Amino acid sequence: MANTVNRISKEKPIDDAIIIEEARRIVEEGSRQNILLRILGAVAVAIHSTGAERVSEKLQRLGDEKQRFSDIDLIACSKQRYEVRRLLEDQLGYRADASTLALYGKSRLIYFRPNQLFHIDVFFDKLEFSHDVVFCAKSGESRLSLDSPTISLADIILEKMQIHEINEKDVKDAIVLLRAHRIGREENAEVIDAKYIARVLAGDWGFWYDATSNLDKVKKSARGYVSGGLLTSEEGEDVTKKVDEIMSCIEQEEKSKEWRKREKKGTKKAWWCAVEEISR
User: Fold this and answer.
1) Residue 132 phi/psi, 5° resolution?
2) Full-prediction pTM beyond 0.70?
3) What is the DSSP letter of 66?
4) How many domains are there within the chain?
5) What CATH number does the domain containing 166 carry?
6) How far apart are CA 131 and CA 119, in angstroms?
7) CA separation for the pair 199, 37 (Å, rounded)
8) Nearest Cα to 144, choosing from 2, 34, 18, 69?
9) Three-state helix/strand/coil letters over 117-152
10) Which neighbouring-strand residues pair with 127?
């Protein structure tokens, strides 16, 4: 995930296409061995936004000679932790970061290669940052089979919108993803499932508060990018309309008792988890 690992390097940046291809290669090799790995983050947005490359380039999320991606984020179910480690370490030649392995090995692993200008971040079962985004439940159910090689579109939106202090890169990624897909209320690899997003947020007031606040920021940013000439009026209006569709679905979803109870406390009490930064 962005801003969770600090590395300093003076090596020449590499083409983002190489990082994207490596992410695909890892997932495909895992699939051949019945290991369920999926791509998260900015790389997932780039892979899943075919047709919106022009918007990505204008917003400087793809293109030119600058290396945009510093890592490959992957998610797997913890029941396959051993298989994931064997794949990355023994077969693909990556080296596990010893300190991360010792401290977070059950939930997260970080991998490097000598002289390689990106690292691999592997999460197990869920993302635990400002708010939890769950992929593999204790019941054995998994959302990882909904799409490939990335997580589902709805999960990418949740991943981006869970950030308590969202940055411009994540806002831009959300705009690209929204521009590239339609909004629906069903599980479909090429549709953003607003119903699932609404259902997740209906059970967690804190997540709902940050996610809806961030969706509003996406709308405002889209309008700002239109004013600044980075988006056309049609592109900005399309993104705004899609955010409104998601927000409408969120508003209509019946909230849980836990949500209602937490709502009463509002912002008087912290509603997000502090994100611990891992430094290298």
Assistant:
1) -80, 135
2) yes
3) S
4) 1
5) 3.30.460.40
6) 23
7) 24
8) 34
9) CCEEEEEECEEECCCEEECECCCCCECHHHCCCECC
10) 133
